[in-house]
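User: I'll paste a sequence; please echo it back and then give the predicted structure.

Assistant: Echoing your sequence first, then the prediction.
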Amino acid sequence: MDYTKWSSKDLAQQLTNLGFSAYARNFRVNEIKGCHLPNVTEDHLKEMGITKIGHRILLLKRIRQIVDGETPKPVKINAQDSNPSSRPSSNLSSAPPIQQEQENNIPPRIAQRRQLQQAQQAAPEPQMQIQQKMAQQLQQLNQEPAKEPSSGRTSKIRYPSSHSSREQKETFSSQEPPPSESSGDGEEKVTCQYCGRKLPPDAAKRHIPVCAKIRGKTAKK
């Protein structure tokens, strides 16, 4: 058989018969015919996408045998060992990406929002800084509690319980209203031996024990 009369399709079929079905498409796509076989080099095989060194050596050896008129022996090349780029593309590659399909099904409002967000992200840096500052200020205003208006009244100073009790004892006699000098019922007044005050009998009974405690039971001379 005269290899010089092979078309690119015939050459691809001969390579398939020799076990190079994974690379037959590379020769057909690049329109390599039988008349080109004497000029095929390893660099040409690299340009066609055959990256496996061992496969390139086998191909060149079989091509030389064809050119020399010998009958080459078929080889066994696993499909997994062949070049990924040399395999024919499947129908799935023509399908649009999943992300593109999802974007086509997005409602117009959501698409507009995404466009606005992308435009904000692509805004110049100074504008982004201003927006960030404004957002921080709004956040601070929302977090600050409302201040109560000042009524102008000073808060009362609260003393300890011991201080207040001592003050109450010292001012007990002053808090008690002084008895009237003249008694309408003509009762005899009793003089307190601790402070010298003159009180009605009933008032004296209440006053003298308290006055004795306050003044330490020191009788007034």
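Residues 84-98, 172-177, 179-184 have pLDDT under 50 and may be disordered. The radius of gyration is 57 Å.
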